[in-house]
Amino acid sequence: MKNMNRRAFLQRTAAGLGAAALAGTSLGADPVLPDGNPPPRPNILWISCEDISPDLGCYGSDYIHTPVLDQLAAQGTRYTRAFAHAGVCAPARSGIITGMYPSSIGSCPMRCQAVPPDEVKCFTEYLRARGYYCTNNVKTDYQFDAPASSWDQNSNRADWRGRPDADQPFFAVINFTSTHESQIRTPPGKQAQAHDPARAQLPPYYPDTPLVRNDWACYHDNIALRLEKQVAQVLAKLEEDRLADDTIVWFWGDHGRGLPRAKRWLYDSGIHVPLIIRVPEKLRRWAHPADPAALAAGGTCDDLVAFVDFAPTMLSLAGIPVPAHMQGQAFLGPQKAPPRQYIYGARDRMDEANDLIRMVRDQRYKYIRNFMAHVSYGQDIEYMHLMPTMQEMRRLHAEGKLQGPQRLYFREHKPLEELYDTIDDPHEVVNLADDPRQRTVLLRLRQECLQWMRRIQDVGLIPEPDFDALKRPQDSYQTTPEPWFEPEPNNAAPIKVAIHCPEAAASIVYRLDGRTEKFGWRLYTGPVAVSPDQELTAKACRLGAKDSRIVSYRRGDRSRPPAETAPRRPHWKQQLADTDLLERLLAIRELDFEPDKAIPRYFEALADPYGPVRYWAVVGLFIHCSGADHPDRTRALRECSRLLADDSWSVRAAAARALCEWGRADKGLPVLVEALQGANGSGRHYAAVALGRIGPAARPALAAIQASLKDSNGYVARVSRNTLQRLQKEG
What we know:
The protein is of the alpha/beta class and about 725 residues long. It folds into 3 domains: about 325 residues, Alkaline Phosphatase, subunit A (3-Layer(aba) Sandwich), CATH 3.40.720; about 70 residues, Sandwich (Immunoglobulin-like); about 140 residues, Alpha Horseshoe (Leucine-rich Repeat Variant), CATH 1.25.10.10. It has 22 helices and 19 strands. An 8-stranded mixed β-sheet has the order 4-3-5-1-6-7-2-8. The protein has a 4-stranded antiparallel β-sheet with strand order 9-10-11-12, with helices on one face. The chain has a 4-stranded antiparallel β-sheet with strand order 16-15-18-19. The N terminus is likely disordered.
């Protein structure tokens, strides 16, 4: 396994170097069509919005009136099975901009600061290198800072009108936040209402109360009264500029509706999104070579489409080769792949709530694997609790008034597996995982989920404190080495200047600060012509790292190659490729299906050389040996006491929590307090979560919990605030 991982890493690295060359140097000649003509370079406009499911008239809703979007669908193609790979914005957008699954590049936990592998770039960089003018208005939220190489303009005014040349093809993103979950939280009677709450058809997992109905109506109001108007303005602007016949228009939502059991979750309510694509008639043969009529006005497409497919599809439509490292597949353009059989999804930490779920779905069935089945669905998430529907559900649960599917969210534990027939059970409330008639489907999708995790090298099973220590030791950011200049050896005017960076995987951007310069950072793709009165400035950037220092060149400056520097530490992906850690983690989690063998194997795994494996062994023992009369309880206590000195903060926190819950807080609590004060950011968060779950046993640590309200990691402060409130309430 070690050698196989190594080979896979080398293959990915080779592909990455090719991608870096594609973006940073010559891209070669444009492809030509069979008739000898150059391919079109279509403009592409994305209109994206936040937190909506396919709750539109064109998708069959009779509760909402959406004439603008319905007309766009009548002019284009309505995709009926488009899915996000995460039920929340940042991981979803991370996968969109890279064409990679977040659980593969370390960008799945919400609001993490990812360090993607060297070969990974924002797909817009490939477009820019081919001459596209790329703008974003204005949200990024990629789990890493958007580098200057990704956009020509990235602001709340950016669109195609900023192009230096009216004939330059463009890729423009305009994102609207008017449908975000925060816009639903308006007190009843304070907003204009186009939708009667009394007519709302609520999903069966919501209690039927006026507050819940009001949220449902307000969500639809935001679409009909605000989003519709914004989309109409953008489309009118495109028509005004006479660009509609040359522009492919996409409309999509970044994940499901911003309400409980939708946003943040892997049910269809959280990941099924609207996707409407309008392809002008003259571009349909290019966009769908095998069947241009498939993109005729008013059509539908029932193929499975995943967010990771967006990036390769953009490159395909632009006539740019899709880099080998991308995990998505093009569904339009000359590189169109066969339709998908499956789509996949992942949920890791959501804000301050730790979780770990993987999902695979075909055209009909949805399989969900809960790797933290011992944790309730209904964890505390401070931001989510601001929603009136969530508050109403919690109130009614506390009063014992929820019924049927309304109670699912508050079960103490999750099932290990969930299986849903999304046709017969579109709300996914009838779990078929234990139905013997569905055993074949269950095993097929279980195996597919496991193989997908292997295929993409899923890092989600590595506890966040261990992974953060691997990707960014001491929570310190690396800085990209600064570039240097190499002018051509003659006195021509203007002189051509090459720009180099010692780090081959880095991207370079530059500016010419002469009198005619009006634009931001340009992507470097080859030597730059510099006039005598111009200053050339440049910097290098890489995803997940700080930009280099800005350096400058004026005519007459000498070439100054950098002095040799210490080699950069190996990337975390390379470090993992030299081990069999990921396979060991999958193996220990497969013990969930072999409970009779699990406990002896957990005890063996406590001696594993890898902290993440030891962590899951402790978690397994905690789950299985919690009963006071369990025959292995004494041994588990002894082993957890030993692991309080482990070199992994996640192992220490897990062992300390187990001891606290097993009546040995005198041993466990000091370790949790130590971690709360001295671990890395995610280690402190793990300690805060553990303190929040041990109940009254945490009282001796009240001073430390109080002090952590000022922690630089905001999620630590949130968890501690909730813990203090609960302890005060319990007296």
